[in-house]
Amino acid sequence: MNSLLTNSEGAGTYLKSKRIRLFLFFVGLFAAAALSMAATNYHIEDSFTAIPKVIVWMARNLVPDGKSLTRLPKILDKLFETVLMSVAASVSAAALSFPVALAGSATSCKQRWLMYSARGVASFFRNIPIVAWAMIFLLTFGQSPFTGYVALFFASFGFLARAFIEAIDETAAAPVEALRAAGGSYGHIIFQGVLPSVLPQMVSWVLYMIETNIRSAALVGLLTGSGIGFTFSIYYKSLQYQSASLVVITIVAVVLVIEAVSNKLRRLIL
Amino acid sequence: MALLEVTSLTKYYGDTAALRDISFEVKKGEFVAVIGPSGSGKTTLIRCINRLIPASDGKIIFDKENILNLRGNALRKARAKIGMIFQHYNLVERLSVIENVLHGRLGYKSSLEGMFGVYSEEEKEKAFNIITLLGLDDYVYRRCDQLSGGQMQRVGIARALVQDPRMILCDEPISSLDPSSSKVIMDYLKKIQKEFGITVVVNLHQVDVAKKYAQRILGFNGGSLVFDDEPGELSKKQIYKIYGTEAGELIID
Ligand SMILES: Nc1ncnc2c1ncn2[C@@H]1O[C@H](COP(=O)(O)OP(=O)(O)OP(=O)(O)O)[C@@H](O)[C@H]1O
Ligand SMILES: [Mg+2]
């Protein structure tokens, strides 16, 4: 009885100190925000009062006009190139991610050192943002569609490898054990146990990656001079805002379409 | 003649001893139940026998071979002769019943054939016969995630049987099932032992079930083998020895 009492008291203090820490965290967060606004001369009220003006300006300059519409075929062409690039980057990254994920999952890899190195590699690639990849390859290869592809590829590789490792750890452990017990070889275990168990999740992640990459491709294209991002930057720099905004509208449309398609596919395979 | 002969088997996880100096024999065609409280080493024992986990010390002679010395293909061959049945069935749930049952043949397959799931007519016929034997003939092409727990466990048994095993190891095969499915599963295990002469070693949490089905009971406590005899010899005193006094009282009531 006695020990029960002290236990509940202990839990009480534990929860209380947790609440206090949470409170201090938010106080700190607001203080940091206020400080950085002061330091950069940013006035939050100004941003809000500017909103009506912005809307008027947008209505006047960003609604595509007739001239920009004549450019639609060219824009769609570039957009198509961007979609293809995203698909290519996602699929090829997935092909590399799968063996790395096999090495990185405790379920399919019994060598500790190999598992940790594979996980390390995946985390390393995952934690470098795509914009950083774009800049690194911009310096290496210069402005070209290839640079854009490589940037998307590396960022996707890190993300997919981590996602696949988790999928294998979660869903394949039980069948792997059974096939091992039945005398299956490593190849049998991977092809008959791991692959069928995780395939739907893997496909789902690749679809997600394609969606994300189309979004990122616009941004990466700005930097690397490829695809739809490059088209956007040309119109923008030459002050043809109507055409630039048409680019944005088509990107949003394509992203929505791709999302709808991949949701359909997901429902089919799961 | 002993089919399985375990001598001074010891298993450490780091510093904790999961099995301490275990020795026993299992005769060909025998039905053996392994009982003991949670954490007493039942799962560890079963998994050491087919080398899913490495033992720390001792000898395991199965069918005249020391399992602990085998590697590569020799280990695969030995595992093929030992079926295994799991508490959570461990099926590839997205695949059909027949595909899961055929996985039991992988121990006999070359790498390429097995990887792409190429099986002979003979193997397929065998799988069908066993599926029928287990009353699953209406579900041959059904995906396993659409089956009930009892049906999935029967698929697990079929997968083990298609291996042509000399022995079947079961790790709590009925712990996730309701009483009536549990009885069905235990009856199938008994039938397999009786009609095909396959040795069955089964971990159980239910002492009454162990007494009813087994010809011999092994009782574990804290990684030591504290009881090894016929069910009739499992007295109150012995149950206390295996489960401790408090849990023992619950079991006897
Ligand atoms: N992978 C592991 N790492 C460390 N210790 C482990 C591991 N697996 C089991 N153990 C320990 O070994 C001992 C025996 O465990 P085991 O799983 O064999 O018991 P069990 O009799 O099967 O229990 P239960 O009835 O709960 O399934 C326990 O003390 C457990 O904590
Ligand atoms: Mg256990």
How much helical structure, as a percent, in the residues of chain A? over 70%
What's the oligomerization state?
heterodimer
Unreliable sequence segments of chain A: none
Can you count the helices of chain A? 11
Largest sheet composition of chain B: 6 strands, mixed
The profile of the biggest β sheet of chain A is:
none
Unreliable stretches of chain B: none
Please provide a brief summary of the model.
Chain A is mainly α. Chain A is built from 11 helices and no strands. The mean pLDDT of chain A is 87.
Question: Could you please describe the fold and organization of this structure?
Answer:
The complex is a heterodimer of chains A (270) and B (253). By secondary structure, chain A is mainly α. Chain A folds into two domains: 2-61; 66-269, Orthogonal Bundle (MetI-like fold), CATH 1.10.3720. Helix content of chain A is 88%, strand content 0%. Chain A has helices at 2-39, 44-61, 66-70, 72-104, 112-127, 130-141, 145-171, 173-181, 186-224, 227-237, 241-269. The relative contact order of chain A is 0.12. The model of chain A has no long low-confidence stretch (mean pLDDT 87). Chain B is α/β, with parallel strands linked by helices and 253 residues long. Chain B folds into two domains: 1-81 and 165-253, Rossmann fold (3-Layer(aba) Sandwich); 90-164, no CATH class. Helix content of chain B is 38%, strand content 25%. The mean pLDDT of chain B is 94. The chains are: A mainly alpha (270), B alpha/beta (253). Chains A and B meet through helix 8 and helix 9 of A and helix 2, strand 6, helix 4 and helix 6 of B. The complex binds adenosine-5'-triphosphate and magnesium ion. Magnesium ion is lined by residues 42-43 of chain B.
